[in-house]
Every structure is written in C-alpha cells, then in structure tokens.
Write a structure and sequence with these properties.
mainly alpha, elongated
Length: 219
C-alpha cells in the first residue's frame, strides 16, 4: 500500500485546480491577443486615459451645451413681452377686434347675393353663370388667400399682415362699389376675398398665443 508523503499532500492543496474549460479560454485569449495585438493595445490605452482623466474635464463634459444663437425664445415663462403675460384688457381687446373682422369679411361675401338681380339689370346681362360666379368668386379668394397670408405672417409678423390685409380689403370693397362693368366687379371681389381671409387664416394663432390652452373657451 502506497503512503503519501506529507510534502506531496501539501503541494496538492496549494496547487489550484485547472478545469479544461479554463485552459480553453486561456488559450483563446492568447490566440486573440496574438491575432489582434492592436486591439489589446487600444483597450489598454483606453483604461489609462480613464485613469488619467482629470475631474475638471468630467465636469465640463456634464455641463449643458451653449444655446444656439439663432434660436429666438422668450426670457423665461414670466417674460412681460410674452403674449400670455400681457394685461387682460389688452388681450381681450385684441380678441374682440379679431372677432369683429372675422365676422365682417364673410358677411361681405353673402350680403351681396340679394342685389345680384338688380346688378345684372344695371350691367345689361342675363347670364346666370356670371350671376352665380360674381357671388362665389369671393369664396375663391378665400381659397387662395391663406397660401400667401400664412407664410407672410411668419416672415413679417402678424401685426403687419393684419394691417396690410385689412387695408387692402377695404380698398377692394370700395372698388367693387364703383365698378363700371361686370368684369371689374368680379376681379375686385376676388381680391377682396383674398385679403379678407386674413383673420380666418391667422386669427386662431393669435388667440392661441395670448390664451393658454387650459383657459380657451372660458375662464
């Protein structure tokens, strides 16, 4: 019967157990490092960079990026120039004016209809198509107006757009009254409808700028 010596038993306890899978992973790692020496060097360099990075650079990385100088915004939610912070008297006066204009311009399209028979008699025409078109051409101006008015309000501002369109609406409405023939009347009514569509086009945006969403429709 063989008897183990104490030295043999001690060496067996001190030597670690080597599992075959451990040997396989070790060989794979050595093989990878041999095939890709640059990747090992890069990873080691990245660890050195992490250890040598200063706290100041970390703080600078966490700071917010500077704002875009081309970005136009208010000076916080309490900016007095922001329309929602205007006095109530000013806001409600503007809403009343826009509501009045929005009522008058559609009225100009329909209040003309009862006088069409007398108009056709004065101009010596019995064409029913022209009699209908001279009324509906105003609505045709409504269709084309927003195509030009909406971009103009973004380029030049709503106030300038309101003033220009309201002035031209009055001018072309007066021109309709002094027209000397049916062709002039049709053309002037088209332009009156085109510029008269201004409050219907940008009026909603004006109200939305002055009244917060929770208070629209009543307070």
């Amino acid at each position: 019967m063989a008897v183990e010596s104490p030295d043999t038993h001690t060496r067996a306890q001190e030597e670690p157990f080597h599992h075959p899978s451990h040997a396989y992973h070790t060989q794979s790692s050595l093989h990878t490092a041999t095939l890709h020496p640059d990747s090992s060097a890069d990873s080691e360099k990245g660890r050195e960079d992490d250890r040598t990075r200063s706290p100041a650079s970390t703080i600078r990385g966490n700071e917010e990026a500077p704002q875009n100088p081309l970005l136009v915004d208010w000076d916080g939610p309490d900016d007095p120039e922001k329309p929602v912070n205007w006095p109530n008297s000013r806001r409600y006066s503007i809403i009343a004016i826009i509501s009045t204009i929005s009522f008058l311009t559609p009225l100009a399209s329909s209040m003309f209809a009862p006088g069409v028979p007398q108009l056709m008699t004065d101009f010596g025409s019995d064409n029913l198509e022209l009699a209908s078109f001279v009324v509906s051409v105003f609505i045709l101006g409504y269709a084309f107006g927003p195509v030009f008015i909406a971009p103009a309000s973004e380029l030049y501002g709503r106030l300038v757009t309101y003033h220009v369109c309201n002035t031209l609406f009055v001018v072309f409405t007066i021109a309709c009254a002094v027209s000397s023939n049916l062709n002039m009347l049709i053309a002037f009514r088209f332009f009156a409808g085109l510029f008269g569509s201004c409050p219907l086009t940008i009026g909603g945006g004006t109200v939305a700028d002055m009244i917060v969403q929770e208070k629209r429709g009543g307070e």
